[in-house]
Design a protein that fits this description.
- Strands 2-1-3-6-7-8 form a 6-stranded parallel β-sheet, sandwiched between helices. Strands 4-5 form a two-stranded antiparallel sheet.
- Helix 4 links the parallel strand 6 and strand 7.
- The chain has 11 helices and 8 strands.
- The two termini are 33 Å apart.
- The longest helix has 15 residues.
- This is DNA-binding NarL/FixJ family response regulator.
- It holds the Pfam family GerE.
Length: 233
């Protein structure tokens, strides 16, 4: 599966919408359908309908409301992605809720945006997650990272899973946390893209996570105060 996907007017991004408010669904559909490279292929107003309709429509991106009358969009994200691993989920919420963000990341969501977002920014977010990149609301994510670093309970400086990583894997994990792509990590560390991919597969397995966004959350525990060394020869 290629890491980044491209779309066009001939092959638009297929979007599925989930929101319990009809006005919001219509507004989102009008906004996204106005873009030549995006097509809204269907929508749902609750969890039950989303799980019944979503897979049949084969969307590239699902825009999911977090809070719903019969459940939540995070469960829908997890369920849909278990059936369609290539699906990118963009969580949409009116709540600036750190717990929901962490749950969304752990459910494999590629992005999390607040409903106050400008229309043009939402369109960009859909394109970003469709292409295989993550689009997490920077302000909310930064606050989550801070709360993870200074949790309420006494936490060990480094989670046990992180302690099992080799120095090279830790280095790569920090760069994943900085949002670098495999190619950028390779350039920075003088490694081939394939070698970086292999390192990432191994470190994800050691951390017990499946996606690099989840690894990025754990990377927040790997703050390295000392300046990074220059590569040898």
């Amino acid at each position: 599966m290629s890491e980044s996907r491209s779309f066009s007017q001939e092959r638009p991004i297929r979007v599925f919408l989930l929101d319990d408010h009809e006005v919001v669904r219509r507004g989102l559909a009008d906004l996204l359908d106005a873009e030549p490279d995006i097509a809204v292929v269907g929508d749902a107003e609750n969890v039950e309908h989303a799980l019944a309709r979503g897979p049949a429509l084969r969307p590239d991106v699902a825009v999911l409301d977090v809070r719903l009358p019969d459940g939540d969009g995070i469960t829908v994200c997890r369920e849909l992605r278990s059936r369609m691993p290539g699906l990118a989920c963009l969580m949409l919420t009116s709540f600036d809720d750190e717990e929901a963000l962490l749950d969304a990341i752990m459910a494999g969501a590629s992005g999390y945006v607040l409903k106050q977002i400008k229309g043009s920014d939402l369109v960009s977010a859909v394109r970003t997650v469709a292409s295989g990149r993550s689009m997490l609301d920077p302000e909310t994510t930064a606050r989550l990272m801070r709360s993870l670093r200074a949790g309420p309970s006494e936490q060990p400086a480094v989670a046990p899973e992180l302690a099992s990583l080799s120095p090279r894997e830790r280095e790569i994990l920090v760069l994943i946390g900085d949002g670098l792509t495999n190619r950028e990590i390779g350039k920075k560390l003088y490694l081939s893209e394939k070698t970086v991919k292999n390192h990432i597969s191994r470190l994800l397995a050691k951390l017990g996570v499946q996606r690099r966004v989840q690894a990025a959350v754990l990377a927040s525990q790997l703050e390295q105060p000392e300046p990074s060394e220059r590569p040898g020869h």
